Amino acid sequence: MSDQTKAKATDLLDDIYDSYSIELEDGESRLPGSIKEIKRGEEILAEVKALNCEDEEVKEHIEQTEFVLSESQKRKFAGSKWIMIVLGLFIVVMMYMSVYEPLTSENTVAMAGKMLKANIRSYEGTVARYKNLPDTDPNKEERLEYAQERLAEFKEFTPETYKEELDSRDTSNAISNFFQWGFWALMLVAYYFASMSPQFLIDKRLAQMNLAVKGGSVVKKIVFAFLGFFIAMPSVTETRVHWSDGSKSTEYGFEGLIIKLIGILVIVAVVIWAMMFMLPWLIIINYLRNYQYEKIDQFFDNLFGKFKSDTGKAVQE
Predict the structure, then answer these.
(1) Please, are residues 20 and 30 in contact by the beta-carbon 8 Å criterion?
(2) Whether this model's pTM surpasses 0.70
(3) Which one, out of 2, 96, 164, 216, has a CA that is 20 to 30 A from the CA of 293?
(4) DSSP secondary structure string, the chain?
(5) pLDDT tens digits, residue range 106-143?
(6) How far apart are CA 162 and CA 115, in angstroms?
(7) pLDDT tens-digit readout, 53-87
(8) What residues pair up with 253 in beta bridges, in sequence order?
């Protein structure tokens, strides 16, 4: 009876293993590639446990199978770590510059007085310039009226009251920026959770090596190639000059450093802009791929089934 129980338990466990659809590169190991395979494996595993086989090899086989089925359902981050790092650092920097600094920096009365005088002089010049515009200019009156109103507003301030206005403005801007960058921080958190994929889907996608993974690798290589080009540029050029009197001098040019810095800043800005533009779409796509995969699989199965059916009818006709 013990040998029959062991044989039946082994057959059932082998049946679970043989049903796995993911074949690893070594050609020998297999892993589950769908939730159906996992659920079926758990049902069969329950039958095996019900046999109460005391054989050590069977017990070890049960533990291994249980581990694989359990690990395959655990979720792990399968999104872009570069998006998390780059956008995370960018949001922290922007939060510091646009929220923390305005709230912690203090406007002085002296500074407010200088700014107030500068604004008054600026609008006095603007009013004088608009008064000299030809009467045929259709926007003369509107521009002049606006400039005069602004000038009158600034003249009503004292250095003390203008300091209070600057403090109020800094606080208002800081609060607005906090909500703006807080929104992007929440978007990044949403991207993280949307990219939490079951391990069996990660294994399946790695096995298939889909185009999205390859495409992402190509884009990354292109970005680093451009960065490498600018980083490798010489920062300083050295020119040795021989004068007619026999003397020598060395001149240094920093054009290369300027071009290098501008090039790196442009690439970083484009990458950050592209990431922020793509982030909402990536959240939706990753959520559907990682949490609604059964419905998506069913949709495509029905779609391809209908396509095959229509194709078969067309051939018969």
Answers:
(1) yes
(2) yes
(3) 216
(4) -HHHHHHHHHHHHHHHHHT--EE-TTSS-EE--SHHHHHHHHHHHHHHHHTT---HHHHHHHHHHHHHHHHHHSEEE-S-HHHHHHHHHHHHHHHIIIIIHHHHS---HHHHHHHHHHHHHHHHHHHHHHHTS-TT-TTHHHHHHHHHHHHHHHHH--HHHHHHHHHHHHHHHHHHHHHHHHHHHHHHHHHHHHTEEEHHHHHHHHHHT-HHHHHHHHHHHHHHHHHHHHHHS-S-EEEEEE-TTS-EEEEEE-HHHHHHHHHHHHHHHHHHHHHHHHHHHHHHHHHHHHHSHHHHHHHHHHHHHHHHHHHHHHHH-
(5) 889 999 999 999 999 999 999 999 888 888 888 888 88
(6) 9
(7) 888 888 899 999 999 999 999 999 988 898 999 99
(8) 237
